Amino acid sequence: MPDGRSGVAGRKLPRWRRLASPLTRRILAVNLLAPVVLVIGLFYLDHYKQGLIRTELEGLGTHAKVMAAALGEGAVTEEEASGFRLNQAMARQMLRRLAEPAKLRARLFDKDGDMVADSRIRPGPKGAVQIEELPVAGISRWADRLRLTWERYTRWIPVDESLPLYTNPAHPKAGEFAEVMSALAGHQDWALRVRKSGGLVLSVAVPVQHYKQVVGGLLITIDGTNIARSLFQVRVAILEIFVLSLAVTIGLSLYLAGTIARPVRRLALAAERVRHGQGRGHAIPDLSARKDEIGELSVALKEMTEALWRRMDAIEAFAADVAHEIKNPLTSLRSAVETVARIENPEQQRRLMAIILDDVGRLNRLISDISDASRIDAEMSRIETAPVSMAAMLNALAEVHSGVAETEAVVFAVELPDGDPLEVPGLESRLVQVLRNLIANAVSFSPSGGTIRLRAGRIPSGVRVEVEDDGPGIPANKLESIFERFYSERPSGEKFGTHSGLGLSISRQIVEAHGGSLRAENRPEGGAVFILDLPT
After folding, report:
1. Which of 10, 170, 177, 515 is buried deepest, with most CB atoms within 10 A?
2. In the 8-state DSSP scheme, what is residue 208?
3. pLDDT value of residue 192
4. How far is CA 222 from CA 64, 191, 227, 338, in A?
5. Which residues contact 82 (CB under 8 A, 6 or more apart)?
Protein backbone atom coordinates (compact mmCIF):
# COMPACT_ATOMS: atom_id res chain seq x y z
CA MET A 1 0.00 0.00 0.00
CA PRO A 2 1.36 3.46 -0.82
CA ASP A 3 2.96 5.33 2.03
CA GLY A 4 0.80 8.38 1.49
CA ARG A 5 -2.41 6.64 2.43
CA SER A 6 -3.88 7.46 5.79
CA GLY A 7 -6.10 5.41 8.02
CA VAL A 8 -5.85 2.25 10.04
CA ALA A 9 -4.60 0.04 7.24
CA GLY A 10 -2.10 2.57 5.93
CA ARG A 11 -0.12 3.11 9.13
CA LYS A 12 2.76 0.95 10.27
CA LEU A 13 2.12 0.64 14.00
CA PRO A 14 4.62 -0.56 16.61
CA ARG A 15 4.24 -4.21 17.61
CA TRP A 16 2.98 -3.37 21.12
CA ARG A 17 0.33 -1.06 19.67
CA ARG A 18 -0.76 -3.70 17.18
CA LEU A 19 -1.12 -6.21 20.01
CA ALA A 20 -2.86 -3.75 22.35
CA SER A 21 -5.26 -1.45 20.54
CA PRO A 22 -6.42 1.81 22.18
CA LEU A 23 -9.70 0.14 23.15
CA THR A 24 -7.78 -2.78 24.69
CA ARG A 25 -5.63 -0.38 26.70
CA ARG A 26 -8.72 1.46 27.93
CA ILE A 27 -10.37 -1.79 29.00
CA LEU A 28 -7.22 -2.78 30.88
CA ALA A 29 -6.92 0.64 32.50
CA VAL A 30 -10.54 0.63 33.73
CA ASN A 31 -10.43 -2.96 34.98
CA LEU A 32 -7.06 -2.50 36.74
CA LEU A 33 -8.33 0.48 38.72
CA ALA A 34 -9.95 -1.64 41.45
CA PRO A 35 -6.89 -3.90 42.08
CA VAL A 36 -4.63 -0.85 42.15
CA VAL A 37 -6.85 0.81 44.76
CA LEU A 38 -6.69 -2.46 46.72
CA VAL A 39 -2.90 -2.58 46.71
CA ILE A 40 -2.70 1.08 47.76
CA GLY A 41 -4.41 -0.09 50.94
CA LEU A 42 -1.16 -1.92 51.80
CA PHE A 43 0.28 1.37 53.00
CA TYR A 44 -2.70 2.62 54.98
CA LEU A 45 -4.01 0.22 57.63
CA ASP A 46 -4.37 2.73 60.47
CA HIS A 47 -7.69 1.45 61.78
CA TYR A 48 -6.44 -2.14 61.91
CA LYS A 49 -3.17 -0.96 63.47
CA GLN A 50 -4.98 0.90 66.26
CA GLY A 51 -6.99 -2.25 67.02
CA LEU A 52 -3.79 -4.28 67.28
CA ILE A 53 -2.29 -1.71 69.64
CA ARG A 54 -5.35 -1.78 71.88
CA THR A 55 -5.31 -5.57 71.98
CA GLU A 56 -1.58 -5.63 72.76
CA LEU A 57 -1.98 -3.06 75.56
CA GLU A 58 -4.84 -5.02 77.09
CA GLY A 59 -2.69 -8.15 77.10
CA LEU A 60 0.22 -6.28 78.63
CA GLY A 61 -2.09 -4.88 81.31
CA THR A 62 -3.25 -8.38 82.22
CA HIS A 63 0.35 -9.63 82.46
CA ALA A 64 1.34 -6.59 84.53
CA LYS A 65 -1.52 -7.09 87.02
CA VAL A 66 -0.64 -10.76 87.52
CA MET A 67 3.06 -9.94 88.01
CA ALA A 68 2.29 -7.02 90.31
CA ALA A 69 0.01 -9.20 92.45
CA ALA A 70 2.74 -11.87 92.74
CA LEU A 71 5.36 -9.28 93.65
CA GLY A 72 3.02 -7.69 96.19
CA GLU A 73 2.60 -11.00 97.93
CA GLY A 74 6.12 -12.52 97.70
CA ALA A 75 8.65 -9.69 97.44
CA VAL A 76 7.53 -7.31 100.21
CA THR A 77 9.01 -7.01 103.70
CA GLU A 78 7.85 -4.98 106.68
CA GLU A 79 10.12 -2.47 108.36
CA GLU A 80 9.31 -0.85 111.66
CA ALA A 81 10.35 2.62 110.62
CA SER A 82 8.96 2.86 107.10
CA GLY A 83 6.31 0.15 106.92
CA PHE A 84 6.16 -2.16 103.91
CA ARG A 85 9.03 -2.08 101.40
CA LEU A 86 10.21 -4.17 98.46
CA ASN A 87 12.74 -6.89 99.07
CA GLN A 88 15.20 -6.17 96.25
CA ALA A 89 16.83 -9.61 96.09
CA MET A 90 13.51 -11.41 96.14
CA ALA A 91 11.99 -8.89 93.66
CA ARG A 92 14.83 -9.39 91.14
CA GLN A 93 14.49 -13.17 91.26
CA MET A 94 10.71 -13.15 90.98
CA LEU A 95 10.68 -10.50 88.26
CA ARG A 96 13.09 -12.49 86.10
CA ARG A 97 11.08 -15.70 86.58
CA LEU A 98 7.74 -13.98 85.81
CA ALA A 99 8.95 -12.03 82.73
CA GLU A 100 10.90 -14.76 80.92
CA PRO A 101 7.94 -17.01 79.89
CA ALA A 102 6.08 -14.05 78.41
CA LYS A 103 9.27 -12.67 76.75
CA LEU A 104 8.60 -9.25 78.24
CA ARG A 105 10.89 -6.63 79.67
CA ALA A 106 9.81 -5.77 83.17
CA ARG A 107 11.26 -3.08 85.42
CA LEU A 108 10.36 -2.55 89.04
CA PHE A 109 10.59 0.80 90.80
CA ASP A 110 10.25 1.35 94.55
CA LYS A 111 8.08 4.03 96.03
CA ASP A 112 11.03 6.42 96.06
CA GLY A 113 11.34 6.20 92.26
CA ASP A 114 14.53 4.12 92.11
CA MET A 115 14.71 1.09 89.86
CA VAL A 116 14.88 -2.04 91.98
CA ALA A 117 14.96 -4.76 89.30
CA ASP A 118 15.17 -5.22 85.51
CA SER A 119 14.31 -8.56 83.89
CA ARG A 120 16.97 -7.97 81.21
CA ILE A 121 19.81 -7.48 83.73
CA ARG A 122 21.48 -10.44 85.41
CA PRO A 123 24.03 -10.23 88.22
CA GLY A 124 27.45 -11.72 87.29
CA PRO A 125 30.89 -12.24 88.90
CA LYS A 126 32.20 -9.14 87.15
CA GLY A 127 29.08 -7.02 87.44
CA ALA A 128 25.61 -6.83 85.94
CA VAL A 129 24.99 -8.32 82.49
CA GLN A 130 22.23 -7.03 80.17
CA ILE A 131 20.48 -9.68 78.07
CA GLU A 132 19.37 -9.08 74.49
CA GLU A 133 17.07 -11.50 72.67
CA LEU A 134 18.37 -12.99 69.42
CA PRO A 135 16.09 -13.44 66.40
CA VAL A 136 14.57 -16.91 66.04
CA ALA A 137 16.34 -19.07 63.45
CA GLY A 138 14.55 -20.68 60.55
CA ILE A 139 11.44 -19.52 58.72
CA SER A 140 10.56 -16.81 61.20
CA ARG A 141 14.01 -15.30 60.80
CA TRP A 142 13.59 -15.06 57.04
CA ALA A 143 10.05 -13.74 57.50
CA ASP A 144 11.41 -11.10 59.87
CA ARG A 145 14.12 -10.22 57.37
CA LEU A 146 11.50 -9.81 54.66
CA ARG A 147 9.43 -7.67 57.00
CA LEU A 148 12.43 -5.54 57.92
CA THR A 149 13.25 -5.13 54.24
CA TRP A 150 9.69 -3.96 53.67
CA GLU A 151 9.96 -1.50 56.54
CA ARG A 152 13.32 -0.24 55.26
CA TYR A 153 11.88 0.62 51.84
CA THR A 154 8.64 2.06 53.16
CA ARG A 155 10.06 4.57 55.60
CA TRP A 156 8.69 7.34 53.39
CA ILE A 157 5.23 6.49 54.77
CA PRO A 158 4.36 9.22 57.29
CA VAL A 159 4.31 8.22 61.00
CA ASP A 160 2.70 9.87 64.01
CA GLU A 161 5.26 12.52 64.98
CA SER A 162 3.34 13.31 68.17
CA LEU A 163 4.65 10.14 69.88
CA PRO A 164 7.59 10.70 72.27
CA LEU A 165 10.96 9.20 71.48
CA TYR A 166 11.84 6.05 73.39
CA THR A 167 15.09 6.16 75.41
CA ASN A 168 16.82 3.38 77.30
CA PRO A 169 19.00 4.93 80.05
CA ALA A 170 21.34 2.68 82.04
CA HIS A 171 19.89 3.76 85.42
CA PRO A 172 16.38 5.01 84.78
CA LYS A 173 14.28 6.81 87.36
CA ALA A 174 10.53 6.60 87.76
CA GLY A 175 10.27 10.29 86.84
CA GLU A 176 11.45 9.53 83.31
CA PHE A 177 8.25 7.50 82.68
CA ALA A 178 4.96 9.29 83.20
CA GLU A 179 3.07 6.00 83.35
CA VAL A 180 5.30 4.80 86.25
CA MET A 181 4.57 7.97 88.20
CA SER A 182 0.89 7.29 87.65
CA ALA A 183 1.36 3.73 88.92
CA LEU A 184 3.16 4.95 92.06
CA ALA A 185 0.11 7.12 92.65
CA GLY A 186 -2.06 3.98 92.59
CA HIS A 187 -3.35 4.05 88.98
CA GLN A 188 -2.73 1.84 85.99
CA ASP A 189 -1.44 3.72 82.94
CA TRP A 190 0.06 3.05 79.50
CA ALA A 191 2.18 4.87 76.93
CA LEU A 192 3.26 4.63 73.31
CA ARG A 193 6.71 5.67 72.15
CA VAL A 194 8.67 5.42 68.92
CA ARG A 195 12.29 4.30 68.47
CA LYS A 196 14.77 6.52 66.69
CA SER A 197 15.32 3.74 64.12
CA GLY A 198 11.59 3.26 63.66
CA GLY A 199 9.06 0.99 65.29
CA LEU A 200 6.73 1.30 68.24
CA VAL A 201 7.41 0.60 71.90
CA LEU A 202 4.38 -0.16 74.08
CA SER A 203 4.52 0.13 77.86
CA VAL A 204 2.10 -0.49 80.70
CA ALA A 205 2.66 0.48 84.36
CA VAL A 206 0.65 -0.87 87.32
CA PRO A 207 1.06 -0.28 91.07
CA VAL A 208 2.55 -3.02 93.25
CA GLN A 209 0.45 -3.13 96.41
CA HIS A 210 0.54 -4.95 99.72
CA TYR A 211 -2.63 -4.66 101.80
CA LYS A 212 -3.73 -1.69 99.66
CA GLN A 213 -0.46 0.10 100.28
CA VAL A 214 1.57 1.03 97.18
CA VAL A 215 5.08 -0.26 97.62
CA GLY A 216 6.31 0.21 94.03
CA GLY A 217 5.52 0.51 90.34
CA LEU A 218 5.90 -2.23 87.73
CA LEU A 219 6.73 -1.13 84.15
CA ILE A 220 6.34 -3.67 81.33
CA THR A 221 7.54 -2.75 77.86
CA ILE A 222 7.40 -4.55 74.56
CA ASP A 223 8.37 -3.45 71.07
CA GLY A 224 5.92 -3.37 68.18
CA THR A 225 7.36 -6.43 66.45
CA ASN A 226 4.16 -8.43 66.88
CA ILE A 227 2.12 -5.53 65.58
CA ALA A 228 4.47 -5.02 62.63
CA ARG A 229 4.41 -8.75 61.93
CA SER A 230 0.60 -8.81 62.00
CA LEU A 231 0.40 -5.78 59.72
CA PHE A 232 2.92 -7.35 57.38
CA GLN A 233 0.90 -10.58 57.24
CA VAL A 234 -2.19 -8.58 56.36
CA ARG A 235 -0.22 -6.76 53.67
CA VAL A 236 1.05 -10.07 52.31
CA ALA A 237 -2.52 -11.39 52.22
CA ILE A 238 -3.66 -8.25 50.42
CA LEU A 239 -0.73 -8.58 48.03
CA GLU A 240 -1.66 -12.19 47.30
CA ILE A 241 -5.24 -11.16 46.63
CA PHE A 242 -3.93 -8.34 44.44
CA VAL A 243 -1.74 -10.68 42.40
CA LEU A 244 -4.63 -13.11 41.96
CA SER A 245 -7.11 -10.37 41.09
CA LEU A 246 -4.53 -8.79 38.78
CA ALA A 247 -4.11 -12.05 36.89
CA VAL A 248 -7.88 -12.56 36.69
CA THR A 249 -8.43 -8.93 35.67
CA ILE A 250 -5.80 -9.04 32.94
CA GLY A 251 -7.16 -12.35 31.69
CA LEU A 252 -10.76 -11.09 31.63
CA SER A 253 -9.66 -7.79 30.07
CA LEU A 254 -7.79 -9.60 27.32
CA TYR A 255 -10.78 -11.86 26.78
CA LEU A 256 -13.08 -8.83 26.70
CA ALA A 257 -10.71 -7.06 24.32
CA GLY A 258 -10.60 -10.18 22.18
CA THR A 259 -14.38 -10.27 21.94
CA ILE A 260 -14.84 -6.52 21.43
CA ALA A 261 -11.71 -4.61 20.47
CA ARG A 262 -10.15 -7.19 18.15
CA PRO A 263 -13.31 -7.81 16.04
CA VAL A 264 -13.93 -4.06 15.81
CA ARG A 265 -10.35 -3.60 14.67
CA ARG A 266 -10.79 -6.36 12.08
CA LEU A 267 -13.89 -4.61 10.78
CA ALA A 268 -12.06 -1.26 10.68
CA LEU A 269 -9.12 -2.76 8.79
CA ALA A 270 -11.45 -4.50 6.35
CA ALA A 271 -13.40 -1.28 5.75
CA GLU A 272 -10.12 0.54 5.18
CA ARG A 273 -8.99 -2.09 2.68
CA VAL A 274 -12.30 -1.82 0.85
CA ARG A 275 -11.94 1.96 0.73
CA HIS A 276 -8.43 1.82 -0.72
CA GLY A 277 -8.57 -1.51 -2.55
CA GLN A 278 -8.79 -2.08 -6.26
CA GLY A 279 -11.60 -4.37 -7.36
CA ARG A 280 -13.89 -6.34 -5.04
CA GLY A 281 -11.45 -8.85 -3.60
CA HIS A 282 -11.63 -7.31 -0.10
CA ALA A 283 -14.66 -8.40 1.89
CA ILE A 284 -16.03 -7.42 5.30
CA PRO A 285 -15.60 -10.28 7.85
CA ASP A 286 -18.86 -12.07 8.58
CA LEU A 287 -19.34 -12.05 12.38
CA SER A 288 -23.10 -12.59 12.34
CA ALA A 289 -22.70 -15.86 14.29
CA ARG A 290 -21.83 -13.83 17.42
CA LYS A 291 -25.49 -12.79 17.87
CA ASP A 292 -24.51 -9.50 19.51
CA GLU A 293 -23.87 -5.85 18.61
CA ILE A 294 -20.52 -6.67 16.98
CA GLY A 295 -22.28 -9.23 14.78
CA GLU A 296 -24.93 -6.67 13.90
CA LEU A 297 -22.19 -4.18 13.04
CA SER A 298 -20.46 -6.66 10.74
CA VAL A 299 -23.75 -7.45 8.99
CA ALA A 300 -24.50 -3.72 8.63
CA LEU A 301 -21.02 -3.03 7.21
CA LYS A 302 -21.30 -6.00 4.86
CA GLU A 303 -24.70 -4.90 3.62
CA MET A 304 -23.50 -1.30 3.31
CA THR A 305 -20.50 -2.43 1.25
CA GLU A 306 -22.69 -4.55 -1.00
CA ALA A 307 -25.15 -1.66 -1.36
CA LEU A 308 -22.24 0.60 -2.27
CA TRP A 309 -21.09 -1.81 -4.98
CA ARG A 310 -24.66 -2.10 -6.25
CA ARG A 311 -24.94 1.65 -6.35
CA MET A 312 -21.69 1.91 -8.25
CA ASP A 313 -22.93 -0.75 -10.68
CA ALA A 314 -26.20 1.13 -11.05
CA ILE A 315 -24.38 4.40 -11.72
CA GLU A 316 -22.19 2.71 -14.30
CA ALA A 317 -25.18 1.07 -15.99
CA PHE A 318 -27.15 4.31 -15.82
CA ALA A 319 -24.33 6.21 -17.47
CA ALA A 320 -24.14 3.60 -20.23
CA ASP A 321 -27.91 3.70 -20.76
CA VAL A 322 -27.95 7.48 -20.84
CA ALA A 323 -25.13 7.56 -23.38
CA HIS A 324 -26.98 5.02 -25.53
CA GLU A 325 -30.34 6.77 -25.37
CA ILE A 326 -28.91 10.22 -26.06
CA LYS A 327 -26.79 8.89 -28.92
CA ASN A 328 -29.88 7.85 -30.96
CA PRO A 329 -31.54 11.30 -31.21
CA LEU A 330 -28.16 12.93 -31.61
CA THR A 331 -27.37 10.66 -34.59
CA SER A 332 -30.73 11.41 -36.15
CA LEU A 333 -30.29 15.11 -35.46
CA ARG A 334 -26.82 15.12 -37.01
CA SER A 335 -28.02 13.34 -40.17
CA ALA A 336 -30.94 15.74 -40.56
CA VAL A 337 -28.69 18.80 -40.10
CA GLU A 338 -26.15 17.51 -42.61
CA THR A 339 -28.89 16.67 -45.12
CA VAL A 340 -30.84 19.93 -44.84
CA ALA A 341 -27.74 21.88 -45.81
CA ARG A 342 -27.56 20.03 -49.18
CA ILE A 343 -31.26 20.00 -50.10
CA GLU A 344 -32.78 22.98 -51.89
CA ASN A 345 -36.35 21.67 -52.09
CA PRO A 346 -38.38 23.75 -49.59
CA GLU A 347 -40.82 20.89 -48.85
CA GLN A 348 -38.02 18.47 -47.99
CA GLN A 349 -36.33 21.15 -45.93
CA ARG A 350 -39.55 21.62 -43.90
CA ARG A 351 -39.81 17.86 -43.27
CA LEU A 352 -36.19 17.74 -42.18
CA MET A 353 -36.67 20.75 -39.89
CA ALA A 354 -39.67 18.98 -38.34
CA ILE A 355 -37.45 15.95 -37.70
CA ILE A 356 -34.82 18.21 -36.14
CA LEU A 357 -37.39 19.84 -33.85
CA ASP A 358 -38.78 16.44 -32.89
CA ASP A 359 -35.29 15.16 -32.01
CA VAL A 360 -34.56 18.29 -29.99
CA GLY A 361 -37.81 17.79 -28.06
CA ARG A 362 -36.93 14.15 -27.50
CA LEU A 363 -33.50 15.17 -26.19
CA ASN A 364 -35.11 17.70 -23.88
CA ARG A 365 -37.48 15.07 -22.44
CA LEU A 366 -34.61 12.63 -22.02
CA ILE A 367 -32.42 15.16 -20.23
CA SER A 368 -35.31 16.25 -17.97
CA ASP A 369 -36.21 12.67 -17.02
CA ILE A 370 -32.55 11.72 -16.56
CA SER A 371 -32.02 14.72 -14.28
CA ASP A 372 -35.15 13.80 -12.32
CA ALA A 373 -34.05 10.18 -11.92
CA SER A 374 -30.53 11.11 -10.81
CA ARG A 375 -31.62 13.38 -7.97
CA ILE A 376 -34.43 11.30 -6.44
CA ASP A 377 -32.26 9.42 -3.92
CA ALA A 378 -30.45 12.55 -2.78
CA GLU A 379 -33.71 14.44 -2.47
CA MET A 380 -35.41 11.67 -0.48
CA SER A 381 -32.47 11.43 1.94
CA ARG A 382 -32.55 15.18 2.70
CA ILE A 383 -36.24 15.97 2.97
CA GLU A 384 -38.24 14.96 6.05
CA THR A 385 -41.43 13.05 5.38
CA ALA A 386 -44.88 14.18 6.47
CA PRO A 387 -48.30 12.45 6.68
CA VAL A 388 -49.88 12.22 3.22
CA SER A 389 -53.55 11.31 2.66
CA MET A 390 -53.70 8.85 -0.24
CA ALA A 391 -57.51 9.03 -0.31
CA ALA A 392 -57.52 12.79 -0.88
CA MET A 393 -54.71 12.46 -3.44
CA LEU A 394 -56.60 9.85 -5.51
CA ASN A 395 -59.81 11.92 -5.48
CA ALA A 396 -57.92 15.03 -6.59
CA LEU A 397 -56.04 13.22 -9.39
CA ALA A 398 -59.24 11.56 -10.68
CA GLU A 399 -60.98 14.93 -10.76
CA VAL A 400 -58.07 16.63 -12.54
CA HIS A 401 -57.68 13.92 -15.21
CA SER A 402 -61.44 13.71 -15.82
CA GLY A 403 -61.43 17.25 -17.15
CA VAL A 404 -58.45 16.84 -19.49
CA ALA A 405 -59.22 16.48 -23.19
CA GLU A 406 -56.87 13.54 -23.61
CA THR A 407 -58.86 11.49 -21.08
CA GLU A 408 -62.43 12.51 -21.96
CA ALA A 409 -62.99 9.11 -23.62
CA VAL A 410 -61.98 7.30 -20.39
CA VAL A 411 -64.11 6.91 -17.27
CA PHE A 412 -62.48 7.19 -13.82
CA ALA A 413 -63.82 5.16 -10.92
CA VAL A 414 -62.48 5.75 -7.40
CA GLU A 415 -63.03 3.11 -4.71
CA LEU A 416 -62.03 4.17 -1.18
CA PRO A 417 -63.00 3.09 2.36
CA ASP A 418 -65.39 5.43 4.14
CA GLY A 419 -63.91 7.83 6.67
CA ASP A 420 -60.32 6.59 6.34
CA PRO A 421 -57.83 9.15 4.95
CA LEU A 422 -55.28 6.35 4.37
CA GLU A 423 -52.34 8.42 5.62
CA VAL A 424 -48.76 7.33 4.95
CA PRO A 425 -45.48 9.10 5.77
CA GLY A 426 -43.89 10.44 2.62
CA LEU A 427 -43.12 13.30 0.28
CA GLU A 428 -46.41 14.38 -1.26
CA SER A 429 -44.99 15.81 -4.50
CA ARG A 430 -43.13 12.59 -5.30
CA LEU A 431 -46.09 10.34 -4.49
CA VAL A 432 -48.25 12.53 -6.75
CA GLN A 433 -45.63 12.06 -9.48
CA VAL A 434 -45.86 8.25 -9.09
CA LEU A 435 -49.65 8.19 -9.34
CA ARG A 436 -49.67 10.58 -12.30
CA ASN A 437 -47.23 8.33 -14.12
CA LEU A 438 -49.39 5.28 -13.43
CA ILE A 439 -52.59 7.07 -14.45
CA ALA A 440 -50.97 8.45 -17.63
CA ASN A 441 -49.74 4.96 -18.48
CA ALA A 442 -53.27 3.53 -17.92
CA VAL A 443 -54.84 6.27 -20.03
CA SER A 444 -52.47 5.62 -22.94
CA PHE A 445 -53.38 1.90 -23.04
CA SER A 446 -57.13 2.20 -22.27
CA PRO A 447 -59.52 1.88 -25.22
CA SER A 448 -62.14 4.52 -25.90
CA GLY A 449 -64.92 4.20 -23.34
CA GLY A 450 -62.71 2.14 -21.01
CA THR A 451 -62.64 2.54 -17.25
CA ILE A 452 -59.64 3.38 -15.09
CA ARG A 453 -60.23 2.24 -11.55
CA LEU A 454 -58.35 3.89 -8.68
CA ARG A 455 -58.67 1.64 -5.65
CA ALA A 456 -57.08 2.00 -2.20
CA GLY A 457 -57.40 0.29 1.17
CA ARG A 458 -55.65 -0.98 4.27
CA ILE A 459 -53.34 -4.01 4.35
CA PRO A 460 -51.46 -5.42 7.39
CA SER A 461 -48.22 -3.69 6.41
CA GLY A 462 -49.71 -0.31 5.43
CA VAL A 463 -51.78 1.08 2.53
CA ARG A 464 -52.28 -0.46 -0.91
CA VAL A 465 -53.19 1.57 -4.02
CA GLU A 466 -54.21 -0.11 -7.28
CA VAL A 467 -54.51 1.51 -10.74
CA GLU A 468 -56.44 -0.70 -13.20
CA ASP A 469 -57.16 -0.25 -16.89
CA ASP A 470 -59.08 -2.14 -19.58
CA GLY A 471 -56.20 -2.19 -22.05
CA PRO A 472 -54.51 -5.15 -23.71
CA GLY A 473 -52.44 -5.97 -20.63
CA ILE A 474 -48.70 -6.59 -20.37
CA PRO A 475 -46.82 -9.53 -21.91
CA ALA A 476 -46.16 -12.08 -19.18
CA ASN A 477 -42.41 -11.97 -19.77
CA LYS A 478 -42.35 -8.17 -19.55
CA LEU A 479 -43.95 -7.65 -16.14
CA GLU A 480 -40.53 -6.72 -14.67
CA SER A 481 -38.89 -5.37 -17.82
CA ILE A 482 -41.29 -2.43 -17.99
CA PHE A 483 -39.64 -1.01 -14.84
CA GLU A 484 -36.18 -0.98 -16.39
CA ARG A 485 -34.66 2.31 -17.49
CA PHE A 486 -35.40 3.42 -21.05
CA TYR A 487 -37.66 0.42 -21.67
CA SER A 488 -40.65 1.48 -23.74
CA GLU A 489 -43.66 -0.69 -24.59
CA ARG A 490 -46.11 1.78 -26.14
CA PRO A 491 -49.50 1.31 -27.85
CA SER A 492 -49.54 0.97 -31.61
CA GLY A 493 -50.09 4.26 -33.37
CA GLU A 494 -48.38 6.38 -30.70
CA LYS A 495 -45.72 8.72 -32.05
CA PHE A 496 -42.20 7.38 -31.46
CA GLY A 497 -40.12 9.29 -28.89
CA THR A 498 -43.11 10.72 -27.01
CA HIS A 499 -41.96 8.92 -23.85
CA SER A 500 -38.40 8.54 -22.57
CA GLY A 501 -38.94 5.12 -21.01
CA LEU A 502 -38.01 6.40 -17.55
CA GLY A 503 -41.47 7.00 -16.09
CA LEU A 504 -42.05 3.58 -14.50
CA SER A 505 -38.40 3.26 -13.50
CA ILE A 506 -38.56 6.63 -11.71
CA SER A 507 -41.88 5.65 -10.09
CA ARG A 508 -40.44 2.43 -8.64
CA GLN A 509 -37.35 4.36 -7.47
CA ILE A 510 -39.57 6.84 -5.60
CA VAL A 511 -41.70 4.10 -4.04
CA GLU A 512 -38.67 2.11 -2.86
CA ALA A 513 -37.21 5.31 -1.36
CA HIS A 514 -40.44 5.47 0.70
CA GLY A 515 -39.88 1.88 1.86
CA GLY A 516 -42.67 0.50 -0.34
CA SER A 517 -43.00 -1.63 -3.46
CA LEU A 518 -44.46 -1.25 -6.95
CA ARG A 519 -45.33 -4.14 -9.26
CA ALA A 520 -47.54 -4.90 -12.26
CA GLU A 521 -49.99 -7.74 -12.88
CA ASN A 522 -52.49 -8.70 -15.56
CA ARG A 523 -56.19 -8.85 -14.75
CA PRO A 524 -57.96 -12.15 -15.53
CA GLU A 525 -60.74 -10.29 -17.36
CA GLY A 526 -58.23 -8.26 -19.37
CA GLY A 527 -56.17 -5.18 -18.75
CA ALA A 528 -53.30 -4.41 -16.39
CA VAL A 529 -53.16 -3.40 -12.74
CA PHE A 530 -50.29 -1.57 -11.01
CA ILE A 531 -50.11 -2.34 -7.28
CA LEU A 532 -48.48 0.22 -5.00
CA ASP A 533 -47.80 -0.76 -1.34
CA LEU A 534 -46.66 1.93 1.11
CA PRO A 535 -45.79 1.37 4.80
CA THR A 536 -47.55 3.33 7.52
Report:
1. 177
2. E
3. 85
4. 12, 11, 10, 124
5. none
